[in-house]
Amino acid sequence: AVTSSTFKPLFGFASVPVSSADTVTLPPGYRYEVVYAWGDSIQGPTLGPVFKPDASNTAAEQEKQCGMHNDGMHLFPLPRHHARSQAGLLCVNHEYVDDGLLHTDGMQAWSAEKVKKSQAAHGVSVVQIAQQGQAENARWQVQPSRYARRITAATPIEVRGPAAGHALLQTAADPSGRRVLGTFNNCANGVTPWGTYLTCEENFNGYFALGDAAPSASQARYGITNKQGFGYRWHEFDTRFDASQNPNEPHRFGWVVEIDPYDPQRAPIKRTALGRFKHEGATVTLSEDKRVVVYMGDDERNEYLYKFVSRQRFTSKTRLSSHLLDEGILYVARFEADGRGEWLPLIHGLPGLTVADGFADQATILIHARMAADNVGATKLDRPEWIALHPQTGEGYVTLTNNSERGKKSPVDGPNPRAENVYGQIVRWRENQQDAAALKFDWELFVLAGDPERDSRVTVNGDAFGSPDGLAFDARGVLWIATDVSTSTLGKQAYANLGNNMLLAADPRTRETRRFLVGPRGCEITGFAFASDGRTLFVNIQHPGESPSERSDPSRPQAVSNWPDGPQGGRPRSATIAIRRVDGGLIGT
Ligand code: FEO
Ligand code: CA
Ligand code: CA
Ligand code: CA
């Protein structure tokens, strides 16, 4: 067995204790600054529009400001391909909004302007950031930039791949089925070897209201079942989101979207070959023969793990316009109890995927990828969230965050060993021949998360945590784990000892976990980015101060959190922070 003494330790920081304080807590010797918070101008502090703490910024202003609920992100170097740049283009997802905080009087007096502002607070930011100052005075700041842009729920986006133009994607407003307005519920992300950003549409279903219409089988399978959606109320002023009137509009969301941060004129592209589901993230690597492989989780209880393998190979000439992500095979994972696994192709005509099975063509399989996966015997997982690949071995790690329905709607099995799973686990796998394009793999449980004092099955070696979600390797091979215990679960017994949501470092060799950061009250820790020199770690603090209802009421005293602005600030703000060592050293060592 491997023991921690076998290896030079990967980390040298002191563990941060659990905390319920309304602040960001870091190990001694570390500090952070807020770089980009909801409402900050995409052109930096010297050029407006300036954030108004009473939330009175207009929809037009919000289109030029940081959106809400920062999630997945990546820092692209400037100049391009620069290995040790002190500047870069930060792409940040804005997953969803809290309308109670977004508007001065919350959801009262609902209006077309409020819908526009809500749509403008969704999507993605591209902002230029740079280090200002020297040594311990160095700060990352957003700067005026020709690259700066906001992509929102109303931005024109191109559709490519096998489902582009398909009848199921055509609407009255877009008979071509190739030009969609907007992207939203952008959760985690990915990065391609050719320097583009992938943003992933997750809980898109919640924006569509069905009214009194009965859901079709595919609408039911994707959760488009509510009269009013999840309560975003866009349909009241934007009929696109009335699924009874526009039944094809929901087919235009639930995709992976590619953005070129270096070309601000270029429209984003929805890549339909990667399938339609509630995409958490899209983690990209290359196979032995240089085909592009994208690993993707569908984050809902009892959903699947997918991978896409391109037909063409990556070369140094590959660009966004090469459209490598438009042609290839989508697979879904099956895990066997004996530690082996298989990638099952979702190809039209294979057993379960024929016209008689309800799939007219390959495009229909991609649009209804969940239903295709149901028919080939894929393994239902405990909410697959982020995926990370070890930078040296290529081993894959996936967070299975929790699943209250395990043992009820799906059987307890190998990768999902606990019924009513409140704590979650991390599963890792190794592709045959360490080739990302392999059709078979071996897997094991990396850790069963949780509080060992409350569940004897917990296998945490080191600092305890639950509901792992964000997951990323740094260049040194440290596995960073962010937690997302929902606000309603934080108050429950199982989590009584674990405090606020946190970020931990794990050593993949010894499985030791060490707590590195605890966030403010009511937040979750979402995306990561690393400066190319390894000396800054960017982290997103999402929804500080969230109430259990996930919709705040502005008339409620803001007692839960006023991070990051403090008592004078008015309302809590999701934000990107930059973490560094005071002595300028490598993060985590
Ligand atoms: Fe947006 Fe599954 O987290
Ligand atoms: Ca997540
Ligand atoms: Ca989550
Ligand atoms: Ca979240």
Walkthrough of the structure:
- This protein is mainly beta and 589 residues long.
- Helix content is 7%, strand content 31%.
- The protein has seven helices and 31 strands.
- The radius of gyration is 22 Å and the shape is globular.
- The model has no long low-confidence stretch (mean pLDDT 95).
- One calcium ion is lined by residues 187-188, 280, 385, 469, 484.
Short description:
Helix content is 7%, strand content 31%.
List keywords for this structure.
single chain, 589 residues, mainly beta, Neuraminidase, 9-stranded antiparallel sheet, 7 helices, 7% helix, globular, binds MU-OXO-diiron, binds calcium ion
CATH class: Mainly Beta
Q: Major β-sheet, in short? A: 9 strands, antiparallel
Ligand kinds: MU-OXO-diiron, calcium ion
> DSSP strand (E) fraction?
25-35%
Mean pLDDT: 95
With helices defined by DSSP (H or I, 4 residues minimum), what is the helix count? 7
Q: How far is the first residue's CA from the last residue's CA? A: 24 Å
Which helices and strands occur, and which strands form pairs?
Elements: E1 30-37, H1 59-62, E2 70-78, E3 87-94, H2 99-102, H3 112-120, E4 123-132, E5 139-143, E6 149-151, E7 156-160, E8 179-181, E9 186-191, E10 197-201, H4 217-221, E11 256-259, E12 269-271, E13 283-286, E14 291-297, E15 301-303, E16 305-313, E17 328-335, E18 340-345, H5 362-367, H6 369-376, E19 381-382, E20 384-389, E21 396-400, E22 425-431, E23 440-448, E24 461-462, E25 468-473, E26 479-483, H7 487-490, E27 502-506, E28 512-518, E29 524-530, E30 537-542, E31 575-581
